[in-house]
Design goal:
The structure holds two protein chains of two kinds. Chain A is an alpha+beta fold. Chain A contains six helices and 13 strands. Chain B has two domains: about 190 residues, no CATH class; about 120 residues, Beta Barrel (Cyclophilin), CATH 2.40.100.10. Classes of the chains: A alpha+beta, B alpha+beta.
Chain lengths: ~260, ~325
């Protein structure tokens, strides 16, 4: 365990083009770096600083997108002629924010529960994953629903969670040939990652089930994605009847 | 009022300046590839620069415009005509009667922009009219335009109505369209000079020889290039050592180098994060010029400091603001 204060103090701030910076807390996938990233993004969002357009939380840090024109008049002491004015203004602001950041050691976010109908036509690779690990499909489901999951970031597709915490025993390599079309809601495994596809898309994940939840809701301006970075996640098994019932509810709720 | 799309062209979409604020949810930014041209087109018809325009790629559309339409064409020269008469670019154009605007193959540049006074009346999705093809949202029904589509025109602003009044007052001769004797000079978007870049976060991951190649050798934009990114062919670039990069956010113009060593420049429809090392980032001031480069043409890269990149950006934005002021004066 790294000391959180040290992590915050030693954050690396690098330009990402001339209208964004990347603040990085480490180079590997680690819940602590993720907490630092989320805390910084949340604090910057709270401050609503003019000139900052948006913060994007990644695995190891935060990208802060800004409008250089809006920072043009901000005064700066001891400027470095090789670095842009706006980069230095933002860097200073980030350092100040990091210095005052209070971070709780534990992630107390409530668990988001994601219902999954496993196997059959919803999870065509469940049998393969079971065979691969010399388990029964039921054992795979039990493992998958018992994981303690953390959403590190949302990316790849809108609402698509990069999830850590898959039990090692069911980690499975990707399919050798990706599928051209994966149905919306598919829940899969790729190496030690697990996740759910919010949209129909091509992909090489092993599909073990499907969730009826609408993970991406473009008509919801506040929470277009059901999941956010930092969410704790739990998968639970449902029957096909329940799948259809929730799907009907979801459909009427989002349209 | 509405516009009938007689022939859409292969890749015509509605784009504004992008869908901002949702990258943390994995939502792409989208927006015009050449945002300078899109903004100038809208300014020329009295719209806010943030209004959407029609982005036509390589081959333009044939559109039936209703009488009373004020429009402007910017970006790539799509050899537009009305009744066989060439329609000039970079200026407001007014049609008194119903007519057909034909855009053809690009004579110069890659992406033409059409703005209409009043804008395109499509719903805002998450605050933007930009077409998000992957998610099938935004723009016109979330997709590329097709033959037979009908685009609703919004209500012209007071500024746009003054533009229309003034442009028609000066026109007396019978013609299919009327325009002005001046134009907004934007030829810088077509230059073939080097594309200027700043160092990327993983610049030091590349061998000295690769860095040298990157700045000295030509790179060709391949046909596998689109709004998501330009895939380049040229001297292959190598990392000093094999190193894992955890997916991290990227930006418009990020140049990433996958394991095959062939650069990819990420553009308007880029994903929100990427796992390939980034050698450089195209400066904002050169993005319009990059967006206007056609496939099978060559690029050269040149390094500038972050301070210089910012200065060029300010210069370009100041120039746009000056143009907007002059246009407003001329049309008032």
């Amino acid at each position: 365990m790294d000391n959180i204060d040290e992590l915050l103090k030693n954050a690396k701030i690098q330009p990402l083009g001339e209208a964004a910076v990347q603040v990085t807390f480490g180079e590997t996938i680690n819940p602590q770096y993720s907490s630092c990233a989320r805390a910084l993004a949340a604090e910057l969002d709270r401050q609503a600083i003019p000139g900052i357009k948006e913060c994007e939380v990644g695995y190891t840090g935060v990208a802060i997108f800004y409008e250089p024109l809006l920072l043009r008049q901000t005064k700066l002491e001891n400027a470095d002629a090789n670095l842009s004015h706006s980069f230095q203004v933002i860097s200073k602001l980030v350092r100040q924010t990091l210095a005052n950041l209070k971070l709780s050691e534990e992630n107390t976010a409530p668990k988001v529960r994601v219902p999954v109908c496993y196997g059959g036509e919803y999870g065509p690779d469940l049998e393969y994953v079971a065979e691969y690990h010399k388990m029964t499909p039921e054992e795979v489901i039990k493992k998958h629903t018992s994981g303690d999951y953390l959403v590190y970031m949302i990316g790849f597709a809108p609402g698509f969670p990069y999830v850590g915490g898959l039990p090692e025993e069911i980690a499975t390599p990707r399919r050798s040939t990706p599928r051209l079309l994966i149905p919306k809601g598919s829940v899969g495994i790729a190496g030690s990652q697990t996740g759910a596809y919010p949209l129909e898309t091509p992909g090489g994940w092993q599909l073990i089930g499907r969730t009826p939840l609408e993970l991406f809701r473009p008509n919801d301006m506040v929470h277009p994605s059901v999941l956010s970075a930092g969410d704790r996640l739990e998968f639970y098994a449902i029957s096909e009847e329940e799948y259809k019932r929730i799907q009907a509810q979801e459909g009427s709720g989002t349209k | 009022m509405n516009i009938l799309v007689k022939k859409s062209g292969p890749m015509t979409t509605l784009q504004d300046l992008g869908r901002l604020g949702f990258q943390k949810y994995g939502v792409l930014v989208n927006g015009a590839m050449d945002s300078f041209s899109s903004r100038i087109a809208n300014i020329l018809v009295g719209n806010a620069p943030t209004e959407a325009s029609l982005e036509m790629t390589m081959l333009g559309s044939t559109l039936e415009l209703p009488a009373g339409t004020l429009f402007a064409l910017t970006g790539a020269d799509l050899a537009a005509t009305i009744n066989g008469q060439p329609v000039p670019q970079f200026r407001p154009v007014y049609v008194k009667t119903d007519c057909t605007l034909r855009c053809g193959f690009s004579k110069r540049g890659c992406r033409g922009y059409l703005a209409i006074a009043g804008g395109f009346d499509v719903p805002l999705v998450m605050g933007s009219k930009s077409t998000y093809l992957r998610a099938k949202i935004g723009g016109y029904k979330g997709r590329v335009l097709q033959d037979g589509d009908v685009l609703e025109i919004g209500t012209a602003s007071a500024v746009a109505q003054t533009f229309i009044h003034n442009i028609t007052a000066k026109a007396d001769r019978p013609a299919p369209f009327v325009t002005v004797p001046w134009f907004a000079p934007c030829s810088f978007i077509f230059g073939e000079d080097e594309i200027r870049v700043t160092q990327g976060q993983q610049f030091n991951w590349f061998t000295d020889a690769s860095v040298q190649d990157f700045f000295q050798e030509p790179y060709t934009i391949t046909l596998q290039s689109d709004r998501m990114g330009y895939r380049l062919e040229g001297k292959v670039l190598a990392y000093r050592e094999k190193r894992d990069l955890v997916s991290e956010p990227v930006t418009f113009g990020s140049i990433q180098i996958p394991a095959d060593g062939k650069p990819i420049i990420l553009l308007a429809d880029r994903q929100t994060a990427g796992g390939y090392p980034k050698i450089a980032s195209v400066i904002y001031a050169d993005l319009p010029r990059l967006a206007q480069r056609q496939p099978n043409t060559q690029l050269h890269f040149k390094e500038v400091t972050l301070a210089e990149a910012e200065q060029y950006y300010f210069q370009q934005e100041d120039y746009l603001a000056q143009l907007a002021e002059i246009i407003a004066q001329r049309m008032a």
